[in-house]
C-alpha cells in the first residue's frame, strides 16, 4: 500500500512535468483491437457536470480530462490538462499552467477560457450539478450563477488562477473529480440539455454512437495529448444485459468485461473453476459497509448501547454470506485509504460483553427496534444475520426491507433507528480521508435529508476535521493524516456506526485482455481504466 | 357506428386522464424523493434545494400536475430528471422493439396455443388431451424469468441455435417471443379447446360431417372460424398482460424495449419517464381493446356495436 501513502506527498511534485512521476507503460502493450463491455442499465448521461454513478463515472473519465488526474491503477495524483501548478504560501491561490496544443474532439484547441467556463457551469445552479458542493472553497461560490465564479480567473490563454476562501488540502483532488472536467462552451451551448448524450471533450476516446437502450461505441481519439494512449481502437458498451447472461456471453467469448461484475449466485461456481478464476482480478475498494444507529433517539442515544451493537455483530459470518468478497471492518475508513489506523483493533466480537453493556445502559432485557435495509440480494440476507446477532444479546430488530430510494429517504429524515448500508454504502468520490467524513459523519451531513443517517454530530471532531483540511502544505501531510486518524478514532469512541466490512472488487475479464492487474481494479475507474487496457491478439 | 366510435374515444381519453392522475398522485406520495436520487450522496443541502427548485418540485401538487397536463396536451412528455433527454425521444427509441416483441409473442402464443387447443379438443378425454392441458397449466404458472433463462441456456448457450440475447435480427426475436408466448399459449390452448369442443357439438358441424366432408375440411373450414371468435377479443386484452411480462423478458434477453426503460426509471425515481411509459402503455391497452371491439363485428356479423 506504499503507493497509496504517496498520494499525500503529491504536492512535492509541484511544477514538475507529468512524465517524471508517471505511469510506466506496459512493455507488452499493443495498439489496436476492440473490446465489449455489458451493463444491465442504460447509461444515464455522459455530461461530466451531471453524471454521478459508478457506471458512467469511468466512461466520463475516458471522454474528458480535468486539470488533475490519477496515475492509472493508483490513488496518486498527477497533472492532467494542467502541465504544472503552483500554490501560494498561504494556500489560497492555485495557478495552473495548461498543457499547450490540447484539442477537443471537434478539433478546437482547449484554453484557459474553457477551464473557467467549465467551473462556472458546474457551480451555476441552473446546471443542477450534484457535485456543485465540492467547489464550495472557491471564492465567489456563494454568488455563483450566470456571472460565474469570481475566484476563477483567466490570466492568459494558458494560465488559470483559482482563489480559495480557505485553505483546502483536498482541492487538487477536487480538480481531478469528473465534475471539474473541461467542456467546450460552444458545443455545450449548442446541445443544451442533450450534451449528456452528445459529449465532446479532450479525452482519450470520443463517443461515436449511442443507440438508446442498446449500445454506446467509444472510438480512439487519435490526437490524444498523451502519446500512444489509448491502446484500444474502440470499446463498445452493450446495455440491457442481465449479469447472469453477461457471464454466459463472456464464457462464450462474446464479451470482454461484464460491467456489473460476477453475479452473487454464480460467484462460487466461477471461482471453483481454475480457468475462470484465473481471469478474475481482485483488489481493494474505497468502500465501507456499516450499520448506522440514530443517536438522537432512545435507545441509541446511549453510547453503551451503540458499543454493544458493535460487539454483537459477528462480522466474519457476514463476510461469509457474501462468499468472502470482503474483509471485516473495524473503523469507518477502508484499509486502502490514506489515514487508515492500522494499530486499532476495533470492538471485539463479544456477546457477553455486549450484554453487560446493555445492562449498564439500563436495558438488561434488551429492546425492540427496526433495521432498515435495501431490498436487493444479498442485503436482506446480511440484515437477517445481523438480526440474529442482535437477538443473541436481547435486541429484537424487525427488518424493513425497502427499495433503495425509500431507505435513503428514511435515513435522511431520521426515521430509521438502524440502517444496514449495503447497496447504498459509502464509496469514496476521491481517495482522501476527508471524503468519508463530511457527508456521512459530520454535523453538516446530519441535517434533514443528509447522508449522515446516524444524525451524529460531534462539534469537537468537526473542528478537528476543518483543521486537518486546512493543512494544504505537503510537508505536513503526515501530520494531517494523523489528525484524520484521530478524527475517526474519536468517531469510534462515540460509535454512531458499527462498521461491518470493506468490500473487495472482483473484475472478470476475457482471456484476450491485457494490462496490469491494477488497471482492472483501478480505485477511481470502475470497472477498468479504459485508456490503458489492451488486447493480446 | 360514428357515434359509437366518438363515445369510445371520449371514454378512452377519460381513462387516460384518470391513469395520469392516479399515477401522478402515487408518485407524489411515494416516500422517495427524486431530487435526492439526482443529487447523489455528496450534495449539500443548498444543492438539493436548488435542484428541487429548478425542476419545479417545490410547487404544490396541483400546480405540478397542472403543468404536466399542460405539457401533455401539447404532446410534451417532459425531460428525464436524470438523463435530461426528452421522454418522448426515449420512448420512441424503444417502442419499436417492444411492439416487435409483442407481435412476435402474439404470433408465438397463437401458433402454439391454437394448435394445441385444437389437438386437445379433437382428442378430448385421451391421455394426449390430459397431458396438453396439464402442460398448459404449468406454462401459465411458470415464472418468465426462469423460462427465459432456461430457453437461453439450452438453445443459445448449449446448442448455439440463437444468439445469447440482444436485438437486431429475427434470430434475436425467437427466444424472447417464445418466452412470452409460452405463457399466453397456456391460456389460448385452454380457451381454444373449450371453444372448439362447443363448436364441434354444433348442428352445422354435424351437417357438414353428414354431407360427407373430410375431417380436415370440417375442422378447418367450418369449426375453426367459429371457434376462434372469442379468442380474437382476447388479443386486445393480451397487450395489457404482456406489459408486465416484457419488463422481465426484456431484461433477461437484453431487449431494448420500454419495459427496461420503465424498470430503470422506477429504480431511479425518474418520474417523467415513469409517467410517460405508464401513459403510453395505458394508451396501448385502451387502443388494443378498442380495436378488438371494432374487429369483432367484421368477423362475426351477429355482433353489433352500440
UniProtKB/TrEMBL annotation, chain A:
Residues 1-20 form the signal peptide. Residues 77-447 form the Solute-binding protein family domain. Gene3D superfamilies: Dipeptide-binding Protein, Domain 3, Periplasmic binding protein-like II. Its main location: periplasm. InterPro entries: Peptide/Ni-bd, SBP_5, SBP_5_dom. It is found in: Periplasm. It comes from the Bacteria. Keywords: Signal, Transport. Belongs to the bacterial solute-binding protein 5 family. This is ABC transporter substrate-binding protein.
UniProtKB/TrEMBL annotation, chain B:
Its main location: membrane. The keyword Cytoplasm does not apply. Residues 95-296 form the ABC transmembrane type-1 domain. It is found in: Cell membrane. It comes from the Bacteria. The keyword Transmembrane applies. It holds the Pfam family BPD_transp_1. It is a multi-pass membrane protein. Keywords: Cell membrane, Membrane, Transmembrane, Transmembrane helix, Transport. The chain crosses the membrane at residues 9-30, 99-122, 134-155, 167-188, 227-253, 273-296. Belongs to the binding-protein-dependent transport system permease family. PANTHER family: DIPEPTIDE TRANSPORT SYSTEM PERMEASE PROTEIN DPPB-RELATED. This is ABC transporter permease. It comes from Tabrizicola soli.
